[in-house]
Amino acid sequence: ALTSVAQQKKTISKKMTATSPKASTAAGELVYTQFCVSCHLPDGGGVENLNPPLIKTSFINGDKTRLITTILNGMSQVEINGERYNNVMPAFNYLTDKQVADVLTYVRNSFGNKKPAVTVTDVKPVRAKMPK
Question: Is 83 helix (H, G, I), strand (E, B) or coil?
Answer without folding.
Answer: strand
